[in-house]
Amino acid sequence: MKGLARTGKGQIGWVEKPRPSAGPRDAIVRPLAFAPCTSEIHMIWGEMGDFMPPDRIMGHEAVGVVDEVGSEVCDFSTGDRVIVPAITPTFGRVPAQRGFAQHCNGMCSGMPFCTAKDGVFAEYFHVNDADANLAHLPAGISLEQAVMIGDMMTTGFYGAELADVALGSTVAVFGIGPVGLMGVAGAHLLGAAQILAVGSRPNAVKVAREFGATEIIDYHNGDTVQQIMDLTDGEGVDSAVTAGGDVSIIGQAVQVLKPGGTLGNVNAMEHAENIPIPLAAWGSGLGDKTIRGGLCPGGRARMERMAALVKHGRLDPSLMLTHRFTNFADIEEALILMHEKPRDLIKPAVILE
Amino acid sequence: MKGLARTGKGQIGWVEKPRPSAGPRDAIVRPLAFAPCTSEIHMIWGEMGDFMPPDRIMGHEAVGVVDEVGSEVCDFSTGDRVIVPAITPTFGRVPAQRGFAQHCNGMCSGMPFCTAKDGVFAEYFHVNDADANLAHLPAGISLEQAVMIGDMMTTGFYGAELADVALGSTVAVFGIGPVGLMGVAGAHLLGAAQILAVGSRPNAVKVAREFGATEIIDYHNGDTVQQIMDLTDGEGVDSAVTAGGDVSIIGQAVQVLKPGGTLGNVNAMEHAENIPIPLAAWGSGLGDKTIRGGLCPGGRARMERMAALVKHGRLDPSLMLTHRFTNFADIEEALILMHEKPRDLIKPAVILE
Amino acid sequence: MKGLARTGKGQIGWVEKPRPSAGPRDAIVRPLAFAPCTSEIHMIWGEMGDFMPPDRIMGHEAVGVVDEVGSEVCDFSTGDRVIVPAITPTFGRVPAQRGFAQHCNGMCSGMPFCTAKDGVFAEYFHVNDADANLAHLPAGISLEQAVMIGDMMTTGFYGAELADVALGSTVAVFGIGPVGLMGVAGAHLLGAAQILAVGSRPNAVKVAREFGATEIIDYHNGDTVQQIMDLTDGEGVDSAVTAGGDVSIIGQAVQVLKPGGTLGNVNAMEHAENIPIPLAAWGSGLGDKTIRGGLCPGGRARMERMAALVKHGRLDPSLMLTHRFTNFADIEEALILMHEKPRDLIKPAVILE
Amino acid sequence: MKGLARTGKGQIGWVEKPRPSAGPRDAIVRPLAFAPCTSEIHMIWGEMGDFMPPDRIMGHEAVGVVDEVGSEVCDFSTGDRVIVPAITPTFGRVPAQRGFAQHCNGMCSGMPFCTAKDGVFAEYFHVNDADANLAHLPAGISLEQAVMIGDMMTTGFYGAELADVALGSTVAVFGIGPVGLMGVAGAHLLGAAQILAVGSRPNAVKVAREFGATEIIDYHNGDTVQQIMDLTDGEGVDSAVTAGGDVSIIGQAVQVLKPGGTLGNVNAMEHAENIPIPLAAWGSGLGDKTIRGGLCPGGRARMERMAALVKHGRLDPSLMLTHRFTNFADIEEALILMHEKPRDLIKPAVILE
After folding, report:
1. pTM for this one?
2. Is the CB of B295 less than 8 angstroms away from the CB of A289?
3. How many Å lie between the alpha carbon of B16 and the closest alpha carbon of chain A?
4. With an 8 Å Cβ cutoff, is A273 touching chain B?
5. D36: distance to nearest CA of chain B, Å?
6. Measured between CB atoms, does D9 come within 8 Å of chain B?
7. Cys bridge to D155: B54, B132, D144, D296, which one at CB 3.0-4.6 A?
8. pLDDT digit string (tens) for D39-63?
9. End-to-end Cα distance, chain D
């Protein structure tokens, strides 16, 4: 079968590999839609792929149809249409039993796609522990919507959850790429009253407002921190979601948090040894500003809840789809587009059906 | 009346001031025991007192007897023996209603002693909102125990609470000064199975073991982080309490946390612009390692709970009392002792009765 | 001044009383809008007023203008337009410090209106601890909206909060009177995907759908429990809010909860010694179905958050206003209407401006 | 192989069955120690076994040595000494991913022993998903201690956890059979200051005090509720654990809870349609008294934490072992003893090594 692989640092190319086979609890899935993600950009052009074997097939965002299931799989059959989470943990492991399946076999080990095996940009791909990780695609959800669920939606929402967004609160979301936009939507769905979204690209600004942003902070108009403080009468925000930028964004978010507030980071950062936390803004260590950052939890239960939100019309994540492709081979162009990040891009995806 | 004041940067001296008077909800208290704290050292010899008015009377740790109450005070009368919390918030304020009384009027504003008015190293001192902040000293608690409750115990315990210490978990406590020792005791009382205490002073090591430390990590024996990883089979700890050291301790604690673990800092840090969080150990931002740091909550309800623990024999905080003084004027020597930190010192206190 | 009072069991009438006066921290407020509530019906025609003194002025839902403030009030002045919460606790009390201000001086003591002093159906009324309990009425909120905040909205939302409504979950709301409707809206704002509302009155059904109900369960169509199980593929719901009916509703809610689910009751029940919890449905005691019931927390911080939701357009609680009156004396008719509960009634209110 | 089975309602007897075999992820374990439990009494002499097939081997509390592992088991080998939890869930199921593994395949389905397959009172027994459910028996824990971990300790502790026992709080524990005693120990380890244990058997009273009970409530001395209220100055308790008695105990516990308090039930109740919750004591539905009841969570992670507590000397659960047997066949006598409940019995066990 064919797959689009990282063929070396900064290089991609098509490879031919045998179709994967299913162990007793696994499934083999044929993609119906897939999308590239910033993580692939980090893996191919950044530091995150430095220890990868050559010709690793990329991709971890997909919706598909089950092509084969192992002998112990109970809930899925060939032909089922499924949402595939980016994170497919082994739920029996001790860290998973403690609530952190995404770190089931070591930090951030819950995503075997790309890191431990081939990814989803292939004619077929392998999903471990199908009963625990796949979710049936409900009727009434389009592929354009569904392909946003497995990573963008769950990751952005996780940012809002990490940030303890509360009913009637004020939230700042730093970054309005697709994860940040889903952070806006997550904060909205969790009951925020006021959502300040930091970003400037017109397409993204428009979608941010549709997802619930009440104010847009554009750094071209002055210091981000100052703008947020001004818009909140000098009080700052209850929660901050960081979903973009470099390590300095964490410090900005700490500065705008009220004492008692919480930061939820879902941005994978590179190119720095340390994240600097401003001591004064953190109350010399005593400000009761909680700093969290995590990997989106995957697995079936979470996918079902995400899908239920889309199915019941609570949000339409396909609003983020700015660049739609229709052929299998287009994933290469979509991936390059993600690398180049033209100003009108939010999220590209290949919809095969 | 007489009081021991900060008379200038790096200077202390006795001052004569009028006895304070009680507003309708306040109390005037005469000390039965008091103790100096590292915070005073920061205020007098460090940066934290740079904006203080001259001749501010120091001290925020005391047990006393009520000398006068305002007309609206219901639950306390002249002659009552009381525990005085270091933190005496205004509980009606909006941040207090949200659960952060210690930041009721702005970050860390919950301790008016020393920062907004004279402290407790005086013949009489003022307590705002007596019904909400004082706690009756129960029979069966000695002054030596009680003087540890209002700051050391509640602060150290808060570290363990911030760190989400869970039943059967493994906890590292960085620093075994009096706050760190109370962090050890707090982790023990919250059900930790294994407590790794970082420190080397023999007196403190002995008390740490009595409070529940199962292992002592001495930096003279090698890298602290490595020792903790070795003692936990490379897994690290579920919770870390930081209660001493400079800003670099936060990074060490992040390194030894498991994914999903939590850090609780109760150390007031100085002399740095930023706290560096090591990016790799924090999972590039995705490690689900929560970083908290806060000011001990004060108030009556918490004091009553702390006192109940001592009364029912759950711990004896007077084990930390290494230097006991008996005269009012001895507070000066106790304060200087705190500044000089001889190797056998854990905590000095003046017990007047 | 004039006020509408409970003049005896099952009797109401206008009384003349002196205008109340403000203690140092209190405010005297003149109503701009007020509304009767089922609680008054319980107090006048049910058991809840059995121990009330005669001629107690009724009413605890109001928006008003500050007419006088005590000497220690900082944040409010004569002429300020304010939202008045039904629950006005004393926040310094020990139970309040532990997070239960609504029970500050004993169970359900947080509402002095009607129970401990005259209520708001008067030309002027008294608010204790104004800084802690009043909230400024933000620009952009109508009186019709604002009068729903102080009890209906905060109470219904509290039901959803007690029920631990989670992102993407399925929720049943029993009862779609005004509190139940706010339970629907609260579940919606907290991120429920599917909301099953139990009720049948056409006006209320229409508003339930506008507030986010995805299905309506009408008991005329068969057994409520069975209908809910059918609509959830036999799985039941994650959360249940009970906001109406008699004690048997609790058992119904327990029956439809999944193991691990939570019930949040905000219905004041009468006319029974016990609430029966069905043993089998509660897993013989082991089903991990949490049963909560509580009084809405009041106070300023919560009012500000509720107001922020309305101000930022997250919901329009005035959709519940079916019977609008405009004269001060109309409160009598509104109260009788509440007692008679005609089929087209959701909520009556008197809007004076 | 031989096993002790329920041969009919109210009947036990030895049966001969083939040794079970291990699927790819399972283990076959040979017991080193086992113990009967009240659940078996319910299954044999009560209602809970009414739908069981004949000759079902009883028993769900055991420590053993691994005799065989399936091909996919990674962390255990033949000869390993292991703690076996009573509850051995399938952790990948959706309810488990939501935190309720004990209800993974329907309410209370997490214990296949006895209910879905043969139990542990046999020469060999089967454990599903060995890597997820077994825990290595650490050096330094005796079999007498270890045999208490898999059900008694985890169940009793779960009661204290359900009851939200907090640092410095007051807790009532209803029932001081082995689960109740572990409830006392759990409350103690979670930091309760005052623990009121309800019971009267002298052996159990003695052990309750060793586990941390500060007061014993004996119903022979008067009304239980009244005694608890008297001992708490009329305030009641913050948390209540119910671990014995009939359905009326829940009502008693609700009566002694403070507003804001929590009840944690771990008692499997029979012989009633409904549990009556006293309406007045529950604040007419508004008292903010949370009622929880659940099945102890099992699995490896929890067993490891329980074992760590014993290993580090935080408690000695073998204090409950009043009747020690040494031969395999003695389990019959131990089980009958559990049924007859002589006054000096706390817990019997068979220790085979």
Report:
1. 0.97
2. no
3. 32
4. yes
5. 25
6. no
7. D296
8. 999 999 988 888 899 999 999 999 9
9. 19
